[in-house]
Automatic annotation (TrEMBL):
This is Penicillin-binding protein activator LpoA. Keywords: Cell outer membrane, Cell shape, Lipoprotein, Membrane, Palmitate, Peptidoglycan synthesis, Signal. Regulator of peptidoglycan synthesis that is essential for the function of penicillin-binding protein 1A (PBP1a). The keyword Disulfide bond does not apply. It holds the Pfam family LppC. HAMAP family: LpoA.
Length: 674
């Protein structure tokens, strides 16, 4: 009888036999197994699982498990571990494993923000040899390595990736393709050379043309989009419109039949409320081109009362009592006239005094009164309350919160110094300046301006921005003999969309940013890196600063000097204009000569107080924006040319202004060519 049968007759030996069999089965279950998913496919498992399998594998499957683990580690945000694991992948790989290693290496470099190295790695890969899953990753790595900088290569990467995606990822691809297209300059678009087989790209560019030609008229734009869909039925955007264009097809203008105007009509900020309301009413009643008799302010003492917080006001400059108030019409007309909304209207407007009243109560009252749109409030603390009050009314706030918030029924319009600083960054960058120094008031006010400039500068592709704090006029006078050194402290950009700084040092998978060089910190004796200075100062302060900047440089090459509107006030005589030779400054179109008749009317109305003229212009544009509220809120790229600038809204409906620039030249003011 076989021995196995003897175990059945001896119960004492039966149990050990079963245990042995279970142990053998257990061991066979832990044996290394081939990956159940291809190394060329999606890595949907956890890094722990892949690493465990790689540790137990000693054959050709080990590299597959390791490469899958690297991708899982990247997805889990464990970038240092991903780089460490990638370095452990063996060298003797199959052709398929080698190709996957190259692609994974580029993805690790993107995760490390080593974008230049990633671009180099990607250029060595032939995408025709990749699987569909790998192609989707390949083009995504190209997109990520571009850091959001629009280019033809980026557009082509989006187009190539599109058919490889589904669901939300597909819609995101369509939306991002459209965003990249709309961010391209007209010059870049016109210089595109399309290959014979790029029918999809041609369709996208024609859609962009339809958009640019009709974006100011929602009805024409709707018709243009539908016509484009008929002409390009197989284009991916014809089947799945970009979200922003889909909103155009469902666009409905907001009602402006009853407008609630929230302004401080009493108290310290009354003078600001009066100026804005006068501009708003003049635009609403179509009175901008008609002479208006000069009128005294409702409160004769209001102009001499400072606001509770001078920097909380939307005006970017304050009147300088030390300067005589004379006719300011020195600027030459700008190259193009300003278009403002001046048509009369049947809208009903009710003014609500925000001084000392809770915002929530005012919003409730306005809703009960039948208002369909609120214009205001003006002061920043009340604007900060808006998002928490959750009113159903559409609101055009006349200031903006410290942190941008996207609320579906709120737009923010402010004459903020931060907005001016962003415009200055764009202007200086366009003039090929690359190493700016900011001279701003010490304290929170100057810090906000410097931060706004630095964030915008790095979005444009710039790197280090230096900041130097300015003291009082008395401190400036005491330092005239020593001048101003072209030195400063680097301003670190806080905007998440800003591209990374110059490459640092990577140790153990952690990148340490490169410290600013001596050339970035100080100009030095050899000519130095500072090529431009942006000054935020009053007219009297700039009178002291400009000669000190001239003394700070030895040699013929001087940094270009730019100033904010804070320095432009009435009373600048010929001597001042000669002293400011070469200085450029920005200001609203109304004061830059865009509409001389309206400028004369406004300056006479407010006794040449430019700060109030700017608020009067703000009231004019607030009326125009109120009538285009839905377009600004929902239609990307919609613009209004107004008295305070060329106005456009970002994705959070924060209104940005593009300002004209003027320059002092031989005692005169002339427009700066764009």
């Amino acid at each position: 009888m076989p021995s196995s049968m003897t175990f059945r007759t001896r119960s004492g030996r039966l149990l050990p036999a079963i245990i042995v069999a279970m142990l053998l089965a257990s061991c066979s279950g832990q044996a290394p197994q081939a990956p159940t998913e291809s190394v060329q496919g999606a890595a949907s498992g956890s890094s722990d699982y892949y690493l465990q399998q790689a540790q137990q594998s000693g054959d050709d499957n080990k590299a597959d498990w390791q490469l899958l683990a690297v991708r899982a580690l990247i997805r889990e945000g464990k970038v240092p571990q991903a780089a460490e694991q990638l370095a452990k992948v063996p060298q003797n790989l199959t052709a398929a494993q080698t190709l996957e290693q190259q692609l994974t290496s580029a993805e690790v470099q993107v995760a490390q923000k080593n974008y230049q190295a990633a671009a180099t790695s990607l250029s060595q890969i032939d995408p025709t040899n990749l699987s569909n899953d790998q192609k989707a990753r390949y083009y995504q790595a190209q997109i990520d390595a571009s850091q959001g900088r629009t280019s033809l290569g980026l557009i082509r990467a989006y187009i190539a990736q599109e058919p490889l995606l589904q669901g939300k990822l597909h819609q995101d691809n369509i939306d991002q393709t459209w965003t990249a297209l709309t961010q391209m300059s007209a010059q870049d678009v016109n210089s595109i050379v399309i290959n014979a087989d790029e029918n999809t790209l041609q369709g996208w560019l024609d859609l962009l043309s339809v958009w640019q030609s009709n974006k100011q008229d929602p009805d024409l734009l709707k018709a243009g989009i539908k016509d484009w869909q008929r002409r390009y039925p197989v284009n991916p955007a014809a089947k799945t419109l970009p979200t922003q264009l889909n909103n155009v097809l469902s666009f409905q203008p907001a009602s402006t039949g009853r407008i609630a105007l929230f302004l401080p009509m009493s108290g310290p900020a009354q003078v600001y409320g009066n100026a804005i309301s006068q501009g708003f009413n003049a635009a609403m009643n179509g009175q901008l081109s008609q002479p208006v008799a000069q009128a005294a302010p409702a409160d004769p003492n209001a102009q001499t009362q400072p606001p509770a917080d001078p920097n909380a006001a939307v005006s970017t400059s304050a009147p300088d009592a030390s300067q005589p108030q004379t006719d300011p019409a020195q600027a030459q007309p700008a190259a193009a006239p300003v278009t403002a909304s001046v048509a009369s209207s049947n809208a009903q407007v009710k003014v609500y005094d925000t001084n000392g009243q809770p915002l929530a109560a005012l919003l409730t009252q306005a809703q009960q009164d039948g208002a369909t749109l609120v214009v205001g409030p003006l002061l920043k603390d009340q604007v900060n309350e808006l998002s928490s009050d959750q009113t159903p009314l559409n609101v055009l706030a006349l200031n903006q919160p410290e942190t941008e918030k996207n609320s579906p029924n709120i737009c923010y319009f402010a004459l903020s110094p931060e907005d001016e600083a962003q415009d200055a960054a764009r202007h200086m960058w366009a003039e090929q300046k690359r190493m700016p120094l900011l001279l701003v008031p010490r304290g929170n006010f100057g810090d906000r301006i410097a931060q706004a400039f630095a964030n915008e500068w790095q979005k444009l592709g710039g790197q280090t921005v230096l900041k130097q704090g300015l003291g009082s006029a008395g401190e400036l006078r005491s330092s005239i003999g020593s001048g101003i050194r072209l030195t400063g402290t680097p301003v670190i950009a806080t905007d998440a969309a800003a591209p990374a700084q110059a490459q640092g040092v990577t140790i153990g998978g952690i990148t340490i940013p490169a410290p600013p060089t001596d050339a970035q910190i100080t100009q030095g004796s050899s000519g130095g890196a500072v090529d431009s200075v942006y000054v935020v100062a009053t007219q009297s302060e700039l009178t002291l600063i400009k000669p000190m900047l001239d003394l700070a440089v030895n040699g013929r090459v001087h940094p270009s000097v730019y100033a904010s509107s804070r320095s432009y006030q009435a009373g600048a005589g010929p001597d001042y204009r000669l002293e400011m030779e070469g200085v450029q400054f920005s200001d609203i179109p109304l004061l830059a000569g865009g509409n001389p008749a309206l400028m004369q009317q406004a300056t006479a109305k407010f006794g040449n107080d430019y700060s109030l003229v700017r608020l009067y212009a703000m009231g004019i544009d607030a009326w125009s924006l109120a009538n285009h509220f839905s377009q600004m809120r929902t239609l990307p790229g919609f613009q209004v040319s107004g008295s305070t600038g060329d106005l456009s809204a970002n994705e959070n409906c924060v209104i940005h202004r593009k300002l004209p620039w003027l320059q002092y030249r031989q005692g005169s003011l002339v427009p700066v060519s764009s």
